[in-house]
Amino acid sequence: MGAAVIQLPLWRQVPLPAAPVAPAQRLPAIPVFVAGRANRRPDCHCEAFTVGRVTAECAGCGGPLALVHSRRIM
After folding, report:
1. Does residue 10 lie within any of the structural domains?
2. DSSP-assigned beta bridge partners for residue 3
3. Residue 41 located in a structural domain
4. Fewer CB within 10 Å, N side or C side of the chain?
5. What are the residues whose beta carbons fall under 8 Å from the beta carbon of 42, sequence distance 6 or more?
6. With 0-12 CB in 10 A as exposed, 13-18 as middle and 19+ as buried, what is 64?
7. Average pLDDT, rounded, for the chain
8. What span, in angstroms and rounded, lies between the C-alpha atoms of 64 and 54?
9. Is 42 within 8 Å of 20 (Cβ atoms)?
10. What is the pTM of this model?
11. Among candidates 74, 50, 73, which has minimal Cα distance to 65?
């Protein structure tokens, strides 16, 4: 006599994908300036910035973006 093999139903063998998050539960994205990446201001779509110690100022509209180091994101 051999060992009995138990087959699980297919729905138990395949992991289910994560449930999508409803748009009302997501927080809005905060625009930040990341050095070494393509940065664009969401208001005026300008790509030129004056970078300081804490913020980067848009050359088009003058709006500030917070500086974020890429190693802190990843």
Report:
1. no
2. none
3. yes
4. N
5. 31
6. middle
7. 75
8. 10
9. no
10. 0.53
11. 50
Range of the domain at 69: 30-74
pLDDT tens per residue across span 45-65: 888 999 988 889 999 899 998
Terminus-to-terminus CA distance in the chain, angstroms?
Answer: 55
Residue whose pair of structure tokens reads 């093999």 in the numeric block = 5
Q: How far apart are CA 55 and CA 50, in angstroms?
A: 9
22, part of any domain: no
pLDDT in tens, 20-35: 666 666 666 788 888 8
Q: Which helix (H) or strand (E) holds 10?
A: helix 10-13
Within a domain: 11:
no
Give burial (CB, 10 Å; 0-12/13-18/19+) of 29: exposed
